[in-house]
Design brief:
The structure holds 5 protein chains of 5 kinds.
Chain A lengths: L2 H26 L5 H22 L15 E11 L2 E9 L1 H24 L6 H20 L3 H19 L6 H34 L7 H11 L7 H15 L8 H4 L5 H10 L4 H8 L1 H5 L2 H22 L5 H22 L2 H28 L17 H15 L5 H15 L3 H26 L7 H6 L5 H21 L7 H17 L11 H24 L12 H8 L2 H11 L4 H47 L6 H24 L3
Antiparallel strand pairs in A: 1-2
Chain B lengths: L7 H18 L5 H23 L9 E9 L4 E7 L1 H20 L8 H20 L3 H22 L4 H33 L10 H10 L4 H18 L8 H8 L2 H26 L1 H27 L4 H21 L3 H32 L10 H4 L1 H14 L6 H16 L1 H8 L1 H17 L5 H6 L8 H19 L2 H19 L8 H24 L9 H6 L3
Chain C lengths: L2 H4 L3 H19 L4 H24 L3 E2 L4 E2 L2 H25 L6 H20 L3 H19 L6 H32 L4 H13 L6 H17 L8 H8 L2 H26 L4 H23 L5 H24 L3 H28 L15 H4 L1 H15 L5 H16 L2 H29 L13 H19 L2 H14 L7 H5 L2
Antiparallel strand pairs in C: 1-2
Classes of the chains: A mainly alpha, B mainly alpha, C mainly alpha, D mainly alpha, E mainly alpha.
């Protein structure tokens, strides 16, 4: 039985799990999780086998490619629209393989974790059904070889995210957050769908309208200037889709609110997998972007700006999950920056590492929240390290990883991004990135400090009840901690020409050629070493600063957590504005409310008024006026016979006159 | 059996009429069963028709043509024929009809007999419109549709039903009467061009070929096209002529709304596609920009107005305006994808909006209220309803994998080829649609159960088997067409090619720019005058949006 | 005066004899309705038979002053049918109000004789006499319910204005006669043709005569602005008689127009065409608009009949503009209108069987429930009057419109106006439907029982209304023949033309 | 003078006008009736005049006969009219037509 | 009082004027008697016609109408159609006028004469009437009637020939017409036992 034959199972198993659970899951009660979890387990196994074969080159060469190994399944016909035939097939190439690792692994762990986390929820079966639906959509997204199918998955993950954010449907806030997430995503999708339409038009101009990713990109590049729609437009439109899904700058507002959903959801969808879809999309379309440098710059700029914006907000948030959400935004910003500077591999690298440690952190935070009885405000936590050591330990690993302290995973990926940016002479990206690294370390350890160090600030009654989460939750944490710690060492070495590079080279070489990046050798004791040093220093600096402010008693750095320091610090004139800005997320939510609720609402109301009074009003007015006219004419009928007679006489006179005129003139 | 032997089209058209007569004769106790029975029988026959048609004969159109001299003096014939487009719409009609008859099982409790009779006669008219190949015959069926609908809304409708139904009839009639003039003028000018012989003067095929080869005089084309267009645009309904729709939908009984949304609106689109464009290609090209602009306005405007509707049915009605905008848009860009998308959109809108109205009807049965604000938290009280409602809401929102998406996508692609800007505007509705749909869905289904619903207590039961049965076919088709749109597209390919060929044979006439300027100026002045008049009449300006804002999406 | 002279006028004689027979029967069995009705119907049947028989011979009598052609036969049969239906519908209304059938039938048959005379006369004097013979009984019938204020008021208004217009009409006749020196239609036509052939403008005297004649006929067909008598007379008259008045005299007056304007004054069409167009527009529009606000169904139908006059005038105008089809349309419309309108009035009459029931709109509230069959029939007739297919009214309208469109030019505008009017008309017709089906009955009085006579008549009207709409071909052939009989231009039989 | 057609026609025209004035202006139904008779006589005068001055064989005789017929018709009209007047007088108790306005609009 | 006189005075003035003109024509212009006679008759006819439509007392109106008809009969005779004049006298004065007088008797309420005689629209009516007259006069004078020379006197038998040969059918029709009128008239006029008295 070949792997190709198994590929469809990657989709069918979660889909089946979803359908079964959705229709009859309610009956299974507390054992509703079995079918979905098993489905994902099998998926994981299949995926791992496939990935192994693909990355080791054991898989056959992809059709129409001389160096890329992978599997294809299909294609199956979908939309036969005249000369435009939209089929969909599945392809596993190295890029997809990397994504599969993250998606299936974290997906599996989150499923297992949820068994414990959701055990008391009435909607247990529903939750697992949704999770499987999401897994189906996400796998479809990474496996599809056709723009439109990707878009389908794109929307489906949006749907499952909507359902999962709104999972606790009785909460108004959840409902609003879910709606917000979906609508904001739709903004990006608008761009994406137009981009797809543009691709159709362009390929049609090339004489062979197609939406197959590989073919279409080749056609577009071959046509170059001859494209009816300029490539930069296409690229930016596609990028708009990526921005929506990956919550980049103008469209970043939905992600923090998405934390209304259950924590496993946040871990899986809003940290590890779905939000990475944008990165994947652009990596997938790398030649397209590589051929339009201006678009690349936009990507880099938006990415790095999102990174610093989110980081600055994360500094002051007090909701543990929101902090993580903003840090996710920030890290995604890094990835886009990487893509923008042409460091595709680095972006994917960071995508993978971030997937693991951010998933870990979220699950950990879930464990924390679980422990302190659904409390999310860090100001009412503290000193938890003594109560929930496993969670603490694992989260500590995650924090170090994200802070970029070697040799943990985050260090390798982040450092590669910064290095590539520097060497691609995008100095501003590098500079900002470096600063963001500082902030990252700071807010992560602020989180750790407020949560685990110092003394408990919540109600004492809870303190006694706090206990470590069940094994079904802690085991996934541990399993995630391992890659968070070691993934970098595993695939990040040797520096410069890492294993990952080897894997992804066939996917990206076309783009790198197009970009014609200066590929000088890696100098550990030269520029690269300096860069490493720089990033490590700032990371440590941030760590220490956070430690000073929120730290524990340790030797001569004896300093209990002193929030008043924070208050006094943030009261400083220069800082106070920044502090408030950060606290209020730079007022973006208020801006959106003003634009779309107040002003937009007024516009809509005005239009409705226009519809009622002007459009419909005109219609009714015509009718009314007709009747009025009728009533007026009716008055002629006075009931007096002699008025009638006079009318007749006058009519006669008029007719006589007109006849005299008509017949009088000579013909 | 060989379908070509028996006059299957006549059968499928007039079987419901037989049903109506039988219902009229039989005692009232049997009414419902008999009516549904006949509807189902018609459905089966239409399926036979479809199956018989399917063996890939696209390209060459009009199967099963039945032809008989009717009013020989004018070459008016009784001529029926089916091509892919009409086949699809006929099956849609027969399906929706029995579905809505089932849906009326519980709601309609008074004067059942009259109700069923009206409904069956309505079906006759609808099917006839889709099958008629003689302009005169077409017009007759077209008008036949009016009366039963008038009764259905007017007798079994809501509180304000009489206003709604009279508005509906007068509005439609005003358009169609002008169309009659146009039809006669067309037939006559063919007769004049044909050496005074009336033979085939109203035969669609003859006229279309004539239009494709010789072509009608520009003056006639412009006049007749405008008349046809007015009639059809009112039916669709396109932007400035749409205001009868919300009223009619709101007041009509559930089944009435379903038929109205699923089939009636298609009459207009079908007419445009079948008659207006092929017969007057030059005029069609000349006015295409206008139609496109109107469609775009309808798409966006309908969605925006839907955003602030407090009434459930009104919201869906305005969403219909928005969706039907895609149909006209796709048709008048005259590209393959556009037209295919437009046809697909017709079918999908029929299924999806029909389903939405059914679900709203289910809710209304229990609450006797349609105010969105009053009802929240239905997920807790009617989980099954909530789930199905969600399905249709997302289908309506164009969720990929469900049928709604493909039509919209193809339309957008087809439009993009002509004008990216137009495509962008049309695609913008994705956001607005998500806005009003999720606003509706979120308010109804999520959050705590509202006091109003709690007050209903036991009345608020979940869907009963019949109601589920009505929704199953629609949902199934939505999924099937979403996964295999080819089922429809292959069926209608022939029609699409014909329309394209006909449209291709046309070229825009020269129009004096000053005419356009004058027209636009008049329009602007008129609207301004109206606004001024309204404001002067003290009927208040645009309302304060604060409330709306609170309701709308965050 | 010889046998050849007798044959063509046999139908008239039969009609008069019918009247006489009814009188005799009434003398034998005074006040008994059944015998009178029977006699009337039998007599009418005989008359019809004779008419059809005579219609085969294309004869003329009395030195060509009376001639029988296809038009004559068509109109005669139509008149007979109308009168027969009226007789059938009358009892339900008259008897409960203690009004005798016999006199009614007699006067009615005399009126019919007048109409038939118009249809056949080829002589100005005969035309005038036929007109008077048609309208004088009309005045009497209008006031037939003599103890009722409304009836007599309607009657006197109708009479005063009617005789006023007769005088005007006569004055016009005198002028035409004086100018042409003959009373024979043919002679007049030739004389006028000669005059028109000349290059100098037509004489002012002719213009005056034309004006007086136009006014006279416009009054008789109730064209605006000479329509004032219609609503009052219709509302006042006993319902069945209103039905007759709205059909018989109107079609008769159109027959007058055909004989006088189309035939005799045909050469002057160029001059009376514009006037007809204006009249048609005014008539349609005012009739429909005012009908919108009526709360009394009879009065509303009165205004609607004005509107229908307008539509028929469109046909006339189309003919004057050179389309024979216009004439056919006019005739077809007349027939269709006759049956659907009679049907509508029959339903009202049936409702008013219960004495004291008015024809106010409320009377119809909930009719659909109280007497569903009547409700459905009324709906059918109203739809036909609106012009909704597949009914006679629809095809008639379509036919007239087609003629107008074919004529082109201003006539196309007229066609559009006509159609807009039809849309307006739909409102007040459907308003009745609203009352019948969408309002609850004011009082739940028990349903009335109607005689077989009434049902039979209604059945006939219904059948004709539907059949003429679905299968108009036969009638089309007939009207084509009839139109050819008087068309100025050499006339191709359309039936032959249509064959592929 | 007396042998010119115009004289008689103008006479008849004036008489016609007088009659129509009476018809339009008098309130009494019977006065209106009389006015109508005047108008008919005016027409008769015209007819006879046309006959007498008309060309054609025995045109004058024709005219005379024409006039005779008109007289008869006038008589018939008078009969009908008076019958109606009496009938309505019974109902309304007044001969003044402008009080017959139960039906209007 | 004065108001009552106005119409009478009006009539007298017109008559005087016409008589004056007639005398003038006779004596000064020396035209023949026929013209004069015609003028006088015409004056009488028009004058009494005016009286018919203007006088207050309806009975006097009726009498004036008889005078009018008489004058017209005279004119007929003058035109050489004596038989028609006779018929005029018989039919109108003998039948119609009497009928009308009876009707007047039947329908006059005591207070009828004291009330307003003219419609409010009398003024407009007068104007309309004048316009009629003017229009007709203009049209008549503007038209060439192609009239032959005046032919005096038509023999009774010529007329009877015409009547009973060419116009026998109309003659019969008239009889039917009268019959119909009589039947209906009788029905309407006869008082119902139940009806209002």
């Amino acid at each position: 039985m070949t792997i190709e034959a198994l590929l469809p199972l990657l989709l069918l198993l979660p889909l089946g799990g979803f359908l079964v659970t959705a229709f009859i899951g309610r009956r299974f009660g507390k054992s509703a999780h079995w079918i979905p979890v098993l489905a994902i387990l099998v998926v994981w196994i299949i995926a791992m086998v496939a990935v192994a074969n693909v990355l080791t080159g054991a898989a056959p060469l992809l059709p129409g490619s001389e160096d890329t190994h992978g599997y294809v399944a299909g294609p199956w016909a979908w939309i036969p629209a005249g000369d435009l035939h939209i089929d969909f097939g599945l392809v596993v190439d190295p890029l997809t393989a990397c994504l599969l690792i993250v998606v299936t692994t974290i997906g599996l762990l989150v499923h297992v974790y949820s068994i414990g986390y959701m055990s008391h929820d009435p909607g247990y079966w529903r939750f697992f059904a949704y999770l499987n639906l999401f897994m189906f959509s996400m796998l479809l997204l990474v496996l599809a070889d056709n723009w439109l199918v990707v878009f389908v998955a794109w929307e489906l993950v949006g749907l499952s995210s909507y359902l999962l954010i709104g999972f606790w449907y009785r909460k108004r806030s959840a409902q609003l957050a879910a709606k917000k997430a979906f609508i904001v995503n739709r903004v990006g999708d608008l761009g994406f769908v137009l981009g797809i339409a543009a691709i159709v038009v362009n390929t049609a101009a090339a004489g062979h309208p197609t939406l197959n990713v590989r073919e279409s990109i080749e056609l577009l590049l071959a046509q170059g200037e001859a494209n009816p729609i300029p490539l930069v437009v296409v690229a930016l439109l596609v990028f708009a889709g990526a921005m929506g899904k990956s919550a980049q700058f103008p469209l970043h507002v939905w992600l923090p609110d998405a934390m209304e959903g259950p924590t496993p959801v946040s871990a899986l969808i809003h940290a590890a997998t779905m939000v990475n879809a944008g990165v994947y999309l652009i990596a997938r379309a790398n030649p397209l972007f590589a051929s339009t440098p201006s678009a690349m710059v936009v990507v880099a700029a938006i990415g790095i700006f999102t990174a610093i914006l989110a980081a600055s907000i994360a500094m002051t948030q007090t909701d543990i999950k929101r902090v993580l959400a903003y840090s996710t935004l920030s890290q995604l910003g890094y990835m886009f920056a990487a893509l923008g500077v042409g460091a595709f591999t680095a972006a994917i690298f960071h995508l993978m590492t971030h997937g693991f440690f951010k998933g870990l952190l979220f699950l950990g935070s879930g464990s924390v929240i679980h422990a302190v009885h659904e409390e999310q405000d860090m100001r009412r936590m503290g000193g938890l390290s003594r109560k929930i050591p496993i969670t603490y330990a694992t989260m500590f690993v995650g924090s170090i990883a994200i802070a970029g302290i070697p040799p943990f995973a985050g260090f390798f990926s982040k450092d590669e991004i910064l290095g590539e940016a520097f060497k691609a002479s995008f100095y501003w990206v590098w500079g900002v990135g470096l600063f963001v690294a500082l902030l990252t370390a700071f807010y992560m350890f602020r989180l750790m400090g407020l949560t685990f160090w110092g003394s408990f600030r919540g109600p004492a009654a809870i303190w006694d009840k706090i206990h470590e989460s069940p094994r079904v939750m802690t085991v996934p944490l541990i399993l995630l901690a391992i890659p968070s710690a070691l993934l970098g060492l595993a695939i990040g070495l040797p520096l410069g020409s890492s294993v990952l590079h080897g894997w992804l080279e066939p996917v990206f070489h076309h783009a790198t050629e197009l970009l014609a990046l200066p590929h000088e050798s890696y100098e550990l004791f030269g520029v690269d070493g300096a860069l490493i040093l720089a990033s490590v220093t700032v990371a440590v600096a941030g760590l220490v600063a956070a430690w000073r402010l929120f730290g524990v008693d340790l030797g001569r750095f004896r300093a209990p957590a002193r929030p008043e320091d924070v208050r006094e610090l943030s009261a400083r004139p220069g800082l106070s504005f920044l502090y408030r800005a950060s606290l209020n997320k730079w007022w973006f939510d208020d801006l959106n409310h003003l634009l779309f609720i107040v002003i937009g609402g007024r516009i809509a109301a005005a239009m409705w008024w226009f519809d009622r009074e002007v459009v419909d009003g005109t219609v009714n007015a015509i009718g009314r006026q007709t009747v009025v006219a009728g009533r007026g004419l009716g008055r002629v009928q006075t009931g007096h016979v002699q008025n009638y007679a006079l009318g007749i006489a006058l009519g006669l006179i008029v007719i006589a006159g007109s006849y005299l005129i008509l017949t009088g003139g000579p013909r | 059996m060989n379908l070509n032997d028996l006059p299957i089209l006549t059968v499928v058209t007039f079987l419901p009429l037989v049903g109506a007569i039988v219902v009229a004769i039989l005692p009232s106790s049997l009414t419902r069963q008999v009516a549904v029975g006949f509807a189902l029988a018609t459905w089966v026959v239409s399926l036979l028709l479809l199956i018989g048609y399917l063996p890939g004969r696209p390209g060459q159109q009009f199967q099963y043509v039945e032809q008989a001299d009717w009013i020989g003096v004018f070459g008016i014939q009784y001529k029926l024929g089916v091509d892919g487009l009409s086949a699809a719409l006929v099956v849609l009609t027969t399906t929706i009809t029995w579905v809505s008859l089932l849906a009326s099982w519980r709601p309609i409790q008074t004067r059942i007999k009259e109700y069923m009779i009206s409904f069956l006669i309505l079906e006759v008219g609808l099917i006839g419109v889709f099958l008629a190949l003689d302009l005169f015959l077409f017009y007759i069926f077209w008008e036949v549709v009016l009366v039963p609908m008038y009764l259905i809304i007017g007798i079994w409708g809501g509180a304000n039903r009489i206003y709604a139904t009279i508005k509906f009839v007068l509005y439609t009639l005003a358009g169609s009467l002008l169309m009659l003039v146009a039809i006669l003028a067309t037939g006559f000018s063919y007769q004049a061009a044909n050496g005074g012989s009336w033979v085939g003067a109203f035969d669609f095929v003859t006229l279309r070929d004539f239009a494709a080869t010789t072509g009608f005089a520009p003056a006639l084309q412009v006049g007749a096209f405008l008349a046809f267009f007015l009639a059809f645009a009112i039916k669709v309904p396109m932007f400035p002529f749409h205001t009868w729709l919300p009223d009619a939908h709101t007041e009509a009984p559930t089944a009435g709304s379903v038929i109205l949304a699923s089939i009636m609106l298609k009459l207009g689109a079908y007419g445009l596609m079948r008659f207006a464009v092929p017969l007057f290609p030059d005029a069609a090209h000349t006015f295409a920009p206008v139609v496109i602009v109107l469609s775009l306005i309808a798409i966006i405007y309908g969605a925006i107005v839907a955003l602030v509707q407090p009434d459930l049915k009104r919201l869906v009605a305005y969403s219909s305006v928005s969706h039907m905008g895609f149909v006209t848009l796709g048709l008048f860009v005259f590209t393959q994808q556009g037209i295919e998308g437009s046809i697909l959109q017709m079918v999908n809108h029929g299924l999806i909006t029909g389903g939405l109205f059914l679900l709203v009807g289910v809710l209304y049965e229990r609450t006797h209220d349609r105010t969105i604000a009053k009802m929240t938290g239905l997920a807790a009280r009617m989980p099954l309803w909530a789930a199905v409602f969600g399905f249709f809401v997302f289908a309506s929102g164009g969720l990929p994998g469900l049928s709604g998406f493909v039509g919209e996508f193809l339309t957008i692609v087809g439009t993009f080829a002509i004008s990216p800007a137009a495509a962008a505007i049309a695609a913008f509705v994705m956001i607005l649609a998500a806005g009003y749909l999720l606003y509706m869905y979120g308010r109804l289904v999520f959050e705590e159960v509202s006091d109003f619903l709690t007050g209903l207590g036991g009345h608020l039961t979940d869907m009963d088997p019949i109601e589920i049965l009505t929704l199953v076919p629609l949902a199934t088709l939505i999924v099937v067409f979403g996964l295999q749109p080819g089922l429809v597209l292959d069926l209608v390919r022939g029609s699409v090619d014909d329309t394209l060929r006909a449209a291709g044979s046309g070229a825009a006439l020269a129009i004096a720019p000053e005419l356009v300027i004058v027209a636009v100026a008049l329009l602007v002045v008129g609207v301004a005058a109206r606004i001024g008049w309204v404001l002067a009449a003290g009927r208040g300006g645009p309302p304060d949006a604060a409330l709306v804002g609170r309701e709308a999406a965050r | 005066m010889s046998f050849q002279d007798i044959v063509p006028i046999l139908p008239l004689i039969a009609a008069v004899l019918t009247a006489a027979a009814i009188l005799v029967v009434d003398l034998v069995r005074p006040g008994r309705s059944a015998p009178a009705i029977a006699t009337a119907l039998i007599g009418l049947a005989i008359t019809a038979a004779i008419t059809l028989a005579v219609g085969q011979t294309d004869a003329s009598a009395f030195g060509g002053s009376y001639k029988v052609d296809a038009l004559t036969t068509f109109l005669d049969v139509l008149f007979i049918a109308v009168v027969a239906m009226t007789v059938v519908f009358a009892p339900d209304y008259l008897l409960p109000r203690g009004l005798p059938i016999a006199e009614f039938a007699v006067v009615l048959v005399f009126a019919m004789t007048g109409a038939m005379l118009i249809a056949g006369s080829a002589d100005l004097l005969l035309l005038f006499l036929g007109l008077e013979l048609m309208v004088l009984p009309g005045y009497l019938l209008a006031g037939y319910h003599k103890t009722d204020g409304y009836s007599t008021e309607g009657a006197i208004k109708y009479f005063l204005l009617g005789s006023f217009s007769s005088a005007i009409f006569l004055f016009g006749l005198a002028f035409v006669w004086g100018l042409t020196g003959t009373t024979r239609i043919e002679g007049i036509k030739d004389a006028l043709a000669a005059v028109v052939a000349g290059t100098e403008p037509l004489s002012a005297g002719l213009a005056m005569g034309l004006a007086f004649l136009t006014t006279g006929v416009a009054f008789k067909i109730a064209a605006v602005p000479f329509h004032y008598w219609t609503p009052d007379a219709y509302q006042g008259s006993p319902t069945p008689i209103t039905g007759y008045l709205s059909v018989g005299p109107k079609v008769g007056a159109f027959a007058l127009i055909l004989r006088l304007f189309v035939e005799a004054l045909g050469p002057l069409a160029e001059w009376w065409l514009p006037v007809m167009i204006v009249l048609a527009t005014l008539t349609m529009t005012l009739g429909n608009l005012v009908a919108l606000t009526q709360d009394n169904v009879k009065r509303m139908l009165g205004y609607s009949s004005i509107a229908h006059t307008g539509y028929m005038l469109v046909g006339l105008a189309a003919y004057a503009a050179g389309q024979l089809r216009g004439l056919e349309g006019l005739l077809f419309y007349g027939a269709a209108y006759a049956f659907m309108n009679l049907g509508a009035f029959a339903v009202i009459a049936a409702l008013q069987k219960r004495a004291g029931v008015t024809s106010a709109l409320d009377t119809f509230a909930g009719l659909g429930r109280r007497e569903p069959l009547l409700g459905v029939l009324m709906t059918l007739f109203l739809l036909s009057l609106t012009g909704i297919p597949p009914t006679a009214g629809f095809f008639a309208k379509a036919y007239v419109i087609l003629a107008a469109v074919q004529a082109g030019g201003w006539l196309t505008v007229l066609a559009v106006i006509a159609m807009l009017n039809a849309a307006v008309a739909a409102f007040y017709y459907l308003r009745v439907v609203v009352y019948m089906f969408m309002r609850d009955p004011a009082s739940d009085a028990p349903a009335l029982r109607h005689g077989a006579l009434m049902w039979g008549g209604l059945a006939a009207a219904t059948a004709l209304t539907i059949l003429l709409g679905l299968f108009p071909t036969t009638l089309l052939g007939v009207v084509n023949q009839a139109a050819c009989a008087i068309s100025a231009s050499p006339c191709v039989a359309a039936a032959a033309q249509a064959l592929p | 003078m007396s042998d010119s057609l115009d004289t008689y026609l103008i006479l008849s025209g004036i008489l016609f006008a007088i009659g129509s004035f009476g018809f339009l202006a008098r309130r009494n139904a019977i006065s209106m009736l009389m006015s109508i008779e005047l108008m008919l006589n005016a027409v008769n005068l015209a007819i006879v005049a046309f006959g007498v001055f008309g060309a054609g064989p025995d045109a004058s005789a024709q005219g005379a006969v024409f006039a005779l017929m008109v007289m008869a018709v006038a008589a018939a009209e008078a009969t009908v009219g008076l019958a109606i007047v009496i009938a309505i007088y019974r109902n309304k108790k007044t001969p003044l037509v402008d009080e017959y306005d139960a039906m209007r609009q | 009082m004065l108001a009552r006189l106005v119409p009478i005075l009006l009539g007298l003035i017109v008559m005087g004027a016409v008589l004056g003109i007639a005398a003038l024509m006779l004596l000064a212009l020396g035209q023949d008697w026929e013209d004069a006679l015609l003028w006088i008759l015409a004056a009488v006819m028009l004058g009494s016609g005016l009286l018919v439509v203007t006088m207050r007392d309806i009975i006097r109106c009726g009498l004036a109408m008889i005078v009018c008809f008489l004058a017209l009969a005279g004119i007929y005779t003058l035109m050489g159609v004596p038989l028609l004049g006779a018929a005029q006298v018989i039919v109108y004065i003998g039948a119609i006028s009497v009928l009308i007088l009876f009707a007047i008797m039947l329908t006059q309420t005591k207070d009828a004469p004291s009330r307003l005689v003219f419609q409010t629209q009398a003024g407009v009516a007068a104007i309309a009437a004048v316009v009629f007259a003017v229009l007709i006069a203009l049209a008549v004078t503007a038209t060439d009637w192609g009239a032959a020379a005046k032919r005096v006197g038509i023999s009774t038998n010529a007329m009877s020939k015409v009547l009973f040969r060419d116009f026998v059918f109309p003659f019969e029709i008239v009889s039917v017409l009268l019959l119909a009128a009589v039947i209906g008239g009788v029905f309407l006029a006869k008082r119902e036992p139940g009806g209002p008295s």
